[in-house]
Amino acid sequence: MPSIPAKSFSYTRHAPLRRRPAPRSVSENALRSRTGRLGDDPAGEVVYGTSRKLERMVPGQFSIAPEDRDAFAASGLSYPTKFDTTRAVFLPYNDDWFSVPAGAPYGQTPTLGVLHPGLMRRAKAAFDAGRR
């Protein structure tokens, strides 16, 4: 797989509600927030998104919605989505965990879109609140 772009949205194959992550065939949106290594292999920290209960936000969460205009378009998301930074997971960066999204907007990489600079403060505030 190619190098991991940080702060980008991707499709992952992961069941986020399990205690121990396990790959699966269903793809989910996630924000890659950090890169690193697991042993000798490349890895990325992901924060999962959901389009449910957007009206109920808690510290450590932030959302991206159509009202964010250019930022929403840059994300590649299809629906308003909130991300919970308190439930980040570090995953191996390989074909078992990441897949190329339909349409391959960024070529043959698992990148769906990018975190627009206009959302950096919102995302940082959520990450900071989630670490308290």
Provide a concise account of the structure shown.
The chain is mainly beta and 132 residues long. The protein contains 2 helices and 8 strands. 30% of the residues are buried.
Can you describe what's shown?
The chain has 132 residues and is mostly beta strands. The chain has one domain (8-130): SH3 type barrels (Roll). 13% of the residues lie in helices and 35% in strands. It is built from 2 helices and 8 strands. Strands 1, 2, 3, 4, 5, 6, 7 and 8 form an 8-stranded antiparallel beta sheet that branches. β2 and β3 (41-50) form a beta hairpin. Residues 1-8 and 13-19 have low confidence and may be disordered.
Summarize the topology.
Layout: E1 8-13, E2 27-38, E3 41-50, E4 61-64, H1 70-75, E5 81-84, E6 89-92, E7 98-99, E8 111-114, H2 120-130
Antiparallel strand pairs: 1-2, 1-7, 1-8, 2-3, 3-5, 3-6, 4-5
Number of strands: 8
Instruction: Give the CATH topology.
Output: SH3 type barrels
- As for the number of domains, it is 1
- Proportion of helical residues: 10-25%
Q: What structural category characterises the helix and strand content?
A: mainly beta
Which stretches are low in confidence, meaning pLDDT under 50 for 5 or more residues running? 1-8, 13-19
Alpha-carbon distance between the two ends: 34 Å
The CATH C-level class name? Mainly Beta
Based on CA atoms alone, the radius of gyration comes out at 14 Å
